[in-house]
Amino acid sequence: MPSITRRRLLATAAVAGSLGAALSRGGGTAYDPSEAAGWRHPQSTPGNTTAVDAAGPTTAGSVWQQEIPAELQYRFNGFARAGDRLLMPTHRRLVGVSTGGDRLFDVTLDADRALDRPVQIDTSPRVFGNRCLVAGGASVYALGVADGQPRWRYDVNSSIDGVVLLGNTLYLSARVGSEYALIAVDATSGTQRWRRDRRFVPLAADVDRLVVAEYDTVWNLGDSRLTAVDPESGRRLWQSDHRALSPSFALGTVALADDTVWHVADKQLTAVNAATGDVRWSKSLADDSASRGNRLAVADAVYVIEPEVTQLTAFELDGRRRWSRGLDGAEYGISVGGETVYAATQTGVEAVAATSGETRFRVDPASTAGDGMTPLVEEGAVYGLAGETLFGVTDS
Fold this sequence. Notes:
Structural class: mainly beta
């Protein structure tokens, strides 16, 4: 049974707005879909493209590493950059590390008193301004990027299916009372902007639409459809005929860019018209295993990583295959910086030329092989996680 918690906030924020059926609005700053300066997380943009214009390193001139032991059987959920620091959630802790590799802070998140233990962190962090947003248990937490200390907390009545940050608004899917709802929350104050009572799981967004997985019923999770809603109101814009099993609707299998929704599922890469929901084309893939990290990145082409067959493939935006190559130790994590593709491996990262697929460099700093995470790229640097090793690579 989902835990029942009361709605409350930390610090001075207080939840406003009705929890009635359909839509409701709360106080807070005006809705603004534009990004905050310096915002970087593994999905890079609200569209989960995992691509940035910044040219990451093309050589492994310098490499640092920091060991961060995982807890119990749970691994990491990715990490984010805010200014000169990296923010990484472990099982029940948020760890802050400088971009030079120095440990800065290590904090746990308090759960409801009835649980009598820190909460498990379930999502990778999203950063807006001086706040780091993570979901854990039946709450969303806003923490200070400088010290990890709480700023506000937004409680629901179940675990949270998914979160997407678009500008100053965080979208989440969870049960509120007896109903599942899509909720828009002000990222600055933690107040509710609106709510729509339906099981819409947020996947990706741009200024015109929020793409969600819409379930036919609350309890039948075996079938869902791509749907787009208005990010300012929650009004449905279209529902696609494109279906997939619910496990395929992981954050790392859907991206939104160039007026196209890109989706990996059922051994297919599918391009869907973002304005109408109509399928444009679909191409066969060799790998269809489940993943927690990113399967695809979208820049001048669509790059798909296929760990089960240790393969990396580039498709032109019209579906033509540009190149395909083997990749030893491939993991579920891929990003693009400038003209270089950075693919996570079980022990580090491999940098590949976007035009040809040729290896630029490979580093393997992890002493023990393990799960990889989507590399995070900035100008002249790339950060990664392999096993229990956080690392950074720069040209010099």
